[in-house]
């Protein structure tokens, strides 16, 4: 196709899809009361980028008039990933003294990391300096490029060390005092203690990882074409193995396939038939967190592309030349020579978080447990969000008697529909699994819950009937996935809580406390799933969209371009990412080893 | 200024300047016979990019008809810098079997390296894969990403090792046989054996060096703002020292000044007054290879910008915190604390070249000596070009008697003007210093050389008069600078020689051999200086243009943009470099530490 034509199409399609996406986000049906509650509830939060409210400056003038400025509370934030940045972006710092500690002085748009591995997008196009993000706050947020070594919960102190060891004038260790600590430190790679993984595998968590993978892919081709190698040796050097069939691993495999077949075969023609890509997945299907239509679409696409998918295999060890597996069905051992292995399975705990978990009595857990307000269980004034934490949702059955008692205003021992409807709004906010249960049963009204086993409406239920009606609700509880979307929503949620803290002390906005009476100060965090993409290469993608929609193919890839461009953290990165896509479209990907 | 306005101006100015440059290159006066000779002589060479002739394919059909294909000569090229790439770009490979060995699988546009150090231009924008450059040859040029460890001149063999040590299936060492060897390996950093330089200084020779400098500059700011440092410690961390006042060092200092004052002060406001940049120069002036008007313009500009220039100082040692110098005038020792040192002085010899020099009896030299045809002295079939070599120009006084004898056709013992004019064309080609001498004396005709001491025309001279007339000519001999321009011209020259080899065997095109009779097969290499730029920051530059023109200021910076954009090796890099400049103009430079 003609170059100019390509550029024209690119701009045209991108423009159309952006408009489509905006329209699609705006046109949302609100079908029932339950849905309306949900919509209202989320109206003021929103993602990292969508949120455009300026922080309230109300408190400032009072301080100025008062002269006697009250000591601002010290907030220390650990981490500048999705959670931390999202928290900082919306925080009203007129009432807090904020300090941020992170070994990375930039925010990285991690969903584009697989694109960086093959040069579809440049590393610099997906990062934005934290100081740029926070500088709108007039420098009142301090950022330190350092690693947190230890959290001392008893003394409300953290100990840090600059990541620059060499040639630093002055002491590179320091400590910070906090009133509130926000742990948004993310997770690290989980090797499941598989031997040889740390030494011989690549990972895909940091920008540097992606850059290293890019160099290594080129290395594999350069070593495969060296003079004097046997064909078998060339094949080994060009065998790329991806361990883990989740979205990151699959996207990397797809990107690599495109890179090889669109660009590298042209400049390494002598070895173009020797390249192999293998995905090893311990489960029965790749992309098993997705709808099964997407999973099988991806498997068929990979089969057509010649990407080998090895399901039901568990990796037992990795050496510099071999990857050893166990077939989970037959129990047989198997091994393959490889040129490069990318390890992309699960998340592990950061040592500093592990140590902190022991201090707060969570030593036997994998991630920090928080309540629904993102407060770390077992200690005060410490919040945890993003990949290093998980929300421990309270079961409704634990509080069922208290809910019944609170609802049964006339102490009649039975609950009428009216009495139930009086508390249901608070119940739905406090126990989001109720709403999930209603949706899963296709019930549009909470009154439907109280129907008898034959499906007939009942006018009232006793405590046993009430327990029975809600007995399956807790099965809908799901732990949140370790995704950017969850982290960003948690950050935005928490900053909102901090911003309205004073107001909510007097006028709590949260649901009723069924057990102790009164109301919670804030509404609990609730995750809104906006959908999930899986780019599959060859300008095709699959997507799970809200409302159980599934979309696959070329148009979904364009939707992906559109969504990812619009979600960029700044106009600079948006401009760069779109520029990179166009550059790739016109000139292909660069294969220089830098 | 409005953003859109900026973009508009950018495109407008760039367009205008490109046209101006093209016109300027086309309009060249040819004032005298001497100048005409020079022009004709250079008509078919040209720079790396300008040359667009397709290689002749004449030989091929003969081979095909003949069936008995003669063995192609094996040409091995070491290096993919300016010299190597320029040689490969124009080589007609129908008669050669070409193999290229280099540890870098890309060509880097090194004059833009200082821009990469501060993110004005991205590293990837200035590199082009070697395989892309040579693939038009249908893969008949083989490239190996490896380092040459040893040249075995006696057996016409080189020994190489892949730069990838780890995880390579197969042997990573190999050897290659050559009929002709082209050494275009470049030079390495010259520390002049100053202690601590290798350990504690940054260099600016490779793309990786520039990337490392970029990270370190950000590190210096990050360490300077850490809590708990004294002001003195912050100042030390922000003291940037450049050793060497040549074009590279000066351009880096200027780039750094712009980066600090245009971008970094905005995001590190607390330390903006603590930044210092110092240039240490052993000579009396910076940019002392340039016209002194440029040198003093640069010094004044640096003084206004607050960049400290320390002339007449020699660095004696560098430690992790201090740089120790000797004042060459007073003899006093002096030292300064530093946050970062960039060492940018002179070029040193690559170990493999050093070893080879010992094999060919040049062990006591600094760089490989070649004759005027770029053939390494002391051995056969080995050529050296670029920074690792220097052309040992023959002195005219060594051959003066032979020239006289050859010119004196009637053996009269005296030379008439006509006899002299008969040989002068060959003399000028063989001894380019004659032309330089004529230019320096503002003589437009060679006959003027033979005038007597009072300036009167003479009809004939004897051998003593002839010697006297040419006695000062050799003072004009200059060794060629170690620049990209020289290397590129040498590569283009040598490929032309290789391309016309068969033709010139029968019909030599070179000048007369005054000593042994007959003619040289090829014309000797002659360097054509096209000018030199020194960007000085703040959108100002200085330039030496052909014909002793000097240009300074903002318009020169635009000329610089124009020339550097047009000189890019591919449309891809041209597009990227211009994109980077525009991006910097609109969004500033990125300060993420990646």
Question: How is the largest sheet of chain A built, in terms of strand order?
Answer: 7-6-5-2-1-8-19
Give the C-alpha Rg of chain A: 26 Å
Gap between N and C termini of chain A, in Å?
30 Å
The helicity of chain A comes to 25-40%
Beta-strand residue percentage of chain A: 15-25%
Question: What's the number of helices of chain A?
Answer: 20
State the secondary-structure class of chain A: alpha/beta
Query: Assembly type of the shown chains?
Result: homodimer
Number of strands of chain A: 25
Summarize the main sheet of chain A.
Answer: 7 strands, mixed
Largest interface: A-B, 71 and 71 residues
Show unreliable segments of chain A: 1-68
Overall geometry of chain A: globular
Mean pLDDT of chain A: 85
Report on the structure:
Two copies of one chain form a homodimer. The longest helix of chain A has 24 residues. Chain A is globular and about 90 Å long. The first copy, chain A, is built from 20 helices and 25 strands. In chain A, a hairpin with a 5-residue loop joins strand 14 and strand 15. With about 600 residues, the first copy, chain A, is an alpha/beta fold. At the A-B interface, strand 4, strand 5, helix 8, helix 9 and helix 20 of A face strand 4, strand 5, helix 8, helix 9 and helix 20 of B.
């Amino acid at each position: 196709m003609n170059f100019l034509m390509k550029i024209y199409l690119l701009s045209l399609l991108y423009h159309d899809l952006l408009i489509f996406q905006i329209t699609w986000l705006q046109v949302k049906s609100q079908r029932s009361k339950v849905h309306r509650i949900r919509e209202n509830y989320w109206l003021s939060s929103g993602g990292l980028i969508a949120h455009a409210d300026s922080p309230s400056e109300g408190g400032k003038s009072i301080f100025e008039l008062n002269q006697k400025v009250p000591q601002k509370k010290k907030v220390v934030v650990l981490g500048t990933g999705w959670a931390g940045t999202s928290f900082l972006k919306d925080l009203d710092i007129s009432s807090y003294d904020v300090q941020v500690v992170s070994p990375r002085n930039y925010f990285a748009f991690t969903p584009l990391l697989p694109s960086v591995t093959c040069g579809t997008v440049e590393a610099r196009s997906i990062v934005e300096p934290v100081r740029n993000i926070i500088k709108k706050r007039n420098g009142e947020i301090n950022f330190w490029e350092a690693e947190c070594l230890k959290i001392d919960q008893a003394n409300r102190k953290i100990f840090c060390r600059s990541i620059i060891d060499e040639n630093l004038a002055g002491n590179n260790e320091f400590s910070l005092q906090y009133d509130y600590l926000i742990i948004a430190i993310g997770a690290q790679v989980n090797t499941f203690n598989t031997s040889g993984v740390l030494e011989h595998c690549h990972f895909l968590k940091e920008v540097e990882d992606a850059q290293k993978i890019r160099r290594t892919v080129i290395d594999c081709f350069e070593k495969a074409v060296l003079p004097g190698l046997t064909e078998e040796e060339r094949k080994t050097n060009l065998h790329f193995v991806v361990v883990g069939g989740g979205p990151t691993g699959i996207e990397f495999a797809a990107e690599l396939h495109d890179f090889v077949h669109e660009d590298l075969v042209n400049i390494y023609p002598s070895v173009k038939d020797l390249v192999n890509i293998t995905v090893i997945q311990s489960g029965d299907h790749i992309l098993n967190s997705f709808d099964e239509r997407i999973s099988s679409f991806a498997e068929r696409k990979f089969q057509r592309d010649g990407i080998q998918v090895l399901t039901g295999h568990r990796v037992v060890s990795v050496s510099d030349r071999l990857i050893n597996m166990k077939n989970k069905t037959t129990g047989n051992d198997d091994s393959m020579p490889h040129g490069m292995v990318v390890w992309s399975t699960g998340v592990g705990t950061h040592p500093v978080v592990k140590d902190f978990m022991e201090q707060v009595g969570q030593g036997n857990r994998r991630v920090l447990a928080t309540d629904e307000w993102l407060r770390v269980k077992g200690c005060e004034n410490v919040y945890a969000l993003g990949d290093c934490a998980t929300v421990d949702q309270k079961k409704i059955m634990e509080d069922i008697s208290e809910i019944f008692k609170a609802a049964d205003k006339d102490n009649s021992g039975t609950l009428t529909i009216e009495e139930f409807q009086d508390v249901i709004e608070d119940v739905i906010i406090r126990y989001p699994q109720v709403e999930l249960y209603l949706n899963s049963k296709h019930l549009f009204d909470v009154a439907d819950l109280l129907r008898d086993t034959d499906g007939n409406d009942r006018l009232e239920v006793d405590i046993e009937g009430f327990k029975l009606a809600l007995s399956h609700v807790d099965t809908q509880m799901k732990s949140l996935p370790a995704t950017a979307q969850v982290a960003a929503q948690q950050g935005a949620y928490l900053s909102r809580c901090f911003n309205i803290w004073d107001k909510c002390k007097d006028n709590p906005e949260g649901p009723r406390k069924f057990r102790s009476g009164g109301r919670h100060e804030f509404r609990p965090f609730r995750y809104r799933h906006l959908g999930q993409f899986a780019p599959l290469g060859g300008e095709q993608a699959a997507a799970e969209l809200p409302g159980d929609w599934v979309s696959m193919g070329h148009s979904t890839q364009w939707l992906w371009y559109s969504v990812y461009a619009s979600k960029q953290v700044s106009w600079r990165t948006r401009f760069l990412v779109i520029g990179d896509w166009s550059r790739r479209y016109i000139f292909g990907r660069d294969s220089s080893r830098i």
